[in-house]
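Sat 14:20. Reprocessing the chain from the morning session after the first attempt stalled halfway. Input below, unchanged.
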Amino acid sequence: MFSQIQNINGAYSWNKWIYKWGSIGEISSNRKKVNGAAFFEEGRYEERRKFSCSRVPRRKAMALIFSSFVLSNYELPKVAYAQSVEFREYIDTFDGYSFMYPRNWIQVRGAGADIFFRDPLVLDENLSVEISSPSSSKYKSVKDLGPPEEAGKGVLRQYLTEFMSTRLGVRRESSVLSTSSRVADDGKLYYDVEVNIKSYANNNELAIMPQDRVARLEWDRRYLSVLGVENNCLYELRIQTPEKVFVQEESDIRAIMNSFRANKIAA
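Finished this time. Tokens:
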């Protein structure tokens, strides 16, 4: 286990959309990162197994090949090997939040969020953090959003607004899958929200006859959000993943959600 410090110098600015639970507003902010503001802490590494190779006589080698061929013709029970995911911890002391993320995910700059990581293999799988402007809102608790059910509706509205399309024949189906609240080990209240959004598009949107415009599924994704309040700001951890991938990685994704913390900024 070791820590690798990444110093981020300079300033950056961006325009991004935040939601005020019913209304959308555009904000601009300039933020400056100072040395040591954000750093990574390596997760533990698993020890690699070492295999020793020994010379095998030619006859024994042929016998092993023949036996493996014979055994391959029989249906052997399938053994599932659970591969543990290694995590890194991202800590932003300047903006006041932290979370764990898979070690092999890469950071994408200029994505519009405060921080953005993406799976290099599954490009539709990513996570980001959004922070409300302290000058435009003064949150005291996540309860300011209302009950979890009301917060879930606000999260879904925000996603649908971001995914508005001007293409002809595009249709979106959406639903709030679950909403809940929990108190983390830091004593703060957090809301967990899960929504599903499906996107359909016609294969021939310019066709005149309705039977010639057949809608096909473009993507089917799950969006998971963790909402927390600190420093008079609303913090939101967003995770996007295809539904098929979510089924396989649910435990890892929930571990990321449970690791998210909104931290007090030192004066």
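The first strand starts at residue 3 and ends at 4.
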